[in-house]
Amino acid sequence: MNQAISATAIPTSVVEISQTRKPRSLPFSLSRDGKRLRNIVGSAVSDFGMISEGDRIMVCLSGGKDSYTMLDLLMALQVVAPVNFDLIAVNLDQKQPDFPEHILPQYLEKAGVKFKIVESDTFSVVKRVLEEGKTMCSLCSRLRRGILYRTAKELGCTKIALGHHREDILGTFFLNMFYGGKLKAMPPKLVSDNGEHVVIRPLAYVREKDIIKYAKEREFPIIPCNLCGSQPNLQRAVIGRMLQDWDKKFPGRIETMFRSLQNIVPSHLADSKLFDFQGLAARGTEGAALPLEFDGGDTAFDVDPEIETLMRQEQSAVASVVTFTDR
Asked: Which pLDDT score, from 0 to 100, does residue 120 have?
């Protein structure tokens, strides 16, 4: 069967492109690092319920290191996962100048991956709408999203996989904090605004530097992301450099920051929509119930196990003296 699915109108029988089944082997050899990354992806998939039995997953492939790595690791996961799921790689050819149209079809045919190349001249639209010199990324992304959602529906896909990694998620968190005044990141799994699509990010736990290393090892035919000639998102670039700098100067900080996104304490923030500060009052008696969301009281950050032990010993000693005096 021809692995390429025509970019023309897709018949309703497209859901019969292939039966969902577990492949017996991979068309490439998975290294030790590759197996480690596969397991990390497997953890994220399990933690967030990204993939279910019988899913048909549209893997969005841009030709960059992240999406190539995502496709590889999802293919590797297919072989060992406890559920059966199907993969269809989709690339959107936006008619950017000098875009090498042959690279992805050749790569995907060789890899034995079912794929679809969607052609849509969004580049001309963006050039016509935006002033010269303006960053195209935001508008281009919105146009691309709509086309990919429509394609997923045409292909009968149940999930849409994007190649954002851990630093992308943290970068979005800081962008929203610094420039948007929100504590908001990039979720590993979400439902589209129209409620029709489930979007997953299998690389949510994967470090960018591990992706860079893996991409070099696999020698992916990388397609540059600046073919449109647009200036990069300068704010995101600044945040990216900040994270890289922190990772070099303070080993472990990136990991700790990412863990914080999984350990939210609404009672120690300031959003009254998430926590009932109005209804919060002294307990009055020992052991009285506190809201389930309440965590830590007034020991938000200054908790040290050794100090806590010393404090308990000191309190016990004081209590003994008071009891003796009362007699």
From this structure: 77
